[in-house]
Amino acid sequence: xxxxxxxxxxxxxxxxxxxxxxxxxxxxxxxxxxxxxxxxxxxxxxxxxxxxxxxxxxxxxxxxxxxxxxxxxxxxxxxxxxxxxxxxxxxxxxxxxxxxxxxxxxxxxxxxxxxxxxxxxxxxxxxxxxxxxxxxxxxxxxxxxxxxxxxxxxxxxxxxxxxxxxxxxxxxxxxxxxxxxxxxxxxxxxxxxxxxxxxxxxxxxxxxxxxxxxxxxxxxxxxxxxxxxxxxxxxxxxxxxxxxxxxxxxxxxxxxxxxxxxxxxxxxxxxxxxxxxxxxxxxxxxxxxxxxxxxxxxxxxxxxxxxxxxxxxxxxxxxxxxxxxxxxxxxxxxxxxxxxxxxxxxxxxxxxxxxxxxxxxxxxxxxxxxxxxxxxxxxxxxxxxxxxxxxxxxxxxxxxxxxxxxxxxxxxxxxxxxxxxxxxxxxxxxxxxxxxxxxxxxxxxxxxxxxxxxxxxxxxxxxxxxxxxxxxxxxxxxx
Amino acid sequence: xxxxxxxxxxxxxxxxxxxxxxxxxxxxxxxxxxxxxxxxxxxxxxxxxxxxxxxxxxxxxxxxxxxxxxxxxxxxxxxxxxxxxxxxxxxxxxxxxxxxxxxxxxxxxxxxxxxxxxxxxxx
Lengths: 479, 123
What we know:
The complex is a heterodimer. By secondary structure, chain A is an alpha/beta fold. Chain A has two domains: 79-334, Aspartate Aminotransferase, domain 2 (3-Layer(aba) Sandwich); 336-458, Aspartate Aminotransferase, domain 1 (Alpha-Beta Complex), CATH 3.90.1150. Chain A has helices spanning 44-56, 78-84, 87-90, 102-119, 131-148, 166-173, 191-197, 220-229, 250-253, 322-358, 379-385, 389-397, 426-445, 447-451, 464-469, and strands at 123-125, 156-160, 177-181, 202-207, 233-237, 257-259, 280-282, 293-296, 304-307, 374-377, 405-406, 415-418. Chain A has a seven-stranded mixed sheet, with helices on both faces. In chain A, strands 10-12-11 form a three-stranded antiparallel sheet, with helices on one face. The radius of gyration of chain A is 25 Å and the shape is globular. Chain B has one domain (4-117): CATH 2.40.50.100. Chain B contains four helices and nine strands; from the N terminus they run E-E-E-H-E-E-E-E-E-H-H-E-H. The chains are: A alpha/beta, B alpha+beta. The A-B interface holds A 165, 379, 383, 406-408, 410, 413, 464-465, 468-469 and B 31, 33-34, 36, 59-62, 84-85, 122-123.
C-alpha cells in the first residue's frame, strides 16, 4: 500500500480551513524555511480512501475480540462519545472565566469525587495524560512528601520483578534508585525479600494488585504495613483495577496514592483513538502537593479553581485531557453504584471461564483461580514442538482475533497473557477458546505451518527483528 | 582454554595474565531471540560478582547480564554495539567485556555441567 506522500498530485487539495480573521504578517527572513515543504496534496476523496484502507489493515475493539492482557481492551460505549461531543464541552476554552465554565468544573469535581470513592482516596488530579505519566506524578507526590519533611535520605523505590516496565522507568525518571525484588513461587510479593529491601532509604513501593500474573496478593495488608513501618509510602498502579473496581479499594489496602487508567478501566479509547488519561489519587496528607488548579467549593455557591498550597506545579497544561474525563464520567454514571462492581465481577468471571476451558490443553503459569486475566506458559509446548508463544499469537490472527499479550510478565518465559474483559459475550469467548485449542493441535501436528502464520491476514509476518535492528522511521523524498 | 559457565547463563574464558573474557551462552542467546541492542560498561568500570554489568534487548524484552567475577573492565567489544546480531550468530566468539584485577568469582560450571543444568532449566 502507498504512503500518503506517494499519492495525490501537486495542486490538489481541499479548503476546509476557515478564512483568516486576523491581520496577516510576514515572518522575518531568519525564521523562514529554506528547503522545500513536502506536504501531501490530496483531494478529500483520496484522503478518505487512504485512511479507510489503513483502518482495514488494523484490528480494533470494533473489529473483533481483543484479549490483550494487562490492557483492558473493553468496549468503548458510544454514549461516552455523545457526551464528549456536546458543544458546551467542545467549544470551551481552557482560559475561559470560571463563571462561564461551571458545568465543566462540575464534571471535573464529580469525576474526582467518584474516582476517590471507588479507589478509597481523598483527592484526585485529572492532569496526567496517561498511565506512566500518572506513575510519575504519584512518585512526585511521594518525593514532595519526604522532601517537605526534610527527609532527604529516602532515595530508593522498591518494585517487584513482575511489575510493568513503566514502574522502574517512572521511578528512574523521578531520580530514584530502583530496587527490584523477586516474586515468591506463587507469583506474589516475597515478604522476606521485601523486609530485607526496606530501610531508612526507602521512599516507597510501587505495586499493582491484582498483580501482573492476575492474582490478588493475599498479603497486601502485611506488604503495605512493612513499607509504612520503614517510613516509606505505598503507590498503587491502577493497571489492573478492572478486577476489583467496586469490590475492594486500594485505599483500604493501605495504599497512599494511586493512578487509574481511564482508557482501560473506565472505557475511554486507547492509543490512536485516545488520548489517554491517568488521574492520580491520594490520601489527605498528600493532597497539598497535587499538581495544577484544584476545583473547590460547591456548584450552588459557584466552583472555583485554586492551586494546592504546596503544589508540585503543573504536570500537564490546564486540566489534563478533559474530553476523555467527560467520557469516563459518562461511563461511571451509566454503570452507577450497582454497575461498577457488576462489571469487575463479570471481568473476573470471563477470565476464569476462559482459563478453565483452556487448561484442558494449555499449561497455566499459576494454576489457581485468577482475577481479570491469566497467564498461559507455553514453555513445554515450545520445548516439545518448537512452536513458541509468538507463533501461537500469530496463528490467532488467522481467526480474526487479536493476540493476547506475549512475553509478559517477564518471569514467565513463554507467556501468553489473556484478558477477555466483561464486555465480551460468551459466544465470542467460545470461538476464541476453540481457536486456541485448535492452534495447540496444529502445533503438535504441523509446527512448520505455525512458524509461517498468519496465512490469511492482510499483513503476513513482518520482519520484526529487521525492523528493530534497522528501523526506518522517516520518509526520504527524492528531491 | 575451556569455557566456564554461570547459573545466570554467562560464560567466562580465562585468557591468562589475570584477564578473563565474559559473554553469554548459546542457550541464553537462543532463549532471548534476535538481539537488537546491547548496553556495555566503559573500560575502567568496576564489575561486581552477581551484579548486572550490561543489558541486552531482544524483540521480546530487555534482560540484565550478570558478572561472574569482581574486577575492572579492561576492554569492551565495541563491535557488539553496532552489530548485536554477532551474539546470535556465534555466542562464544562474541565476548562482551575483558576483565582484569579479578578478586573473586562465582561458583562456575564446566561445559558438561552447564549442559546438564540447561536441560533441567528447560524441563
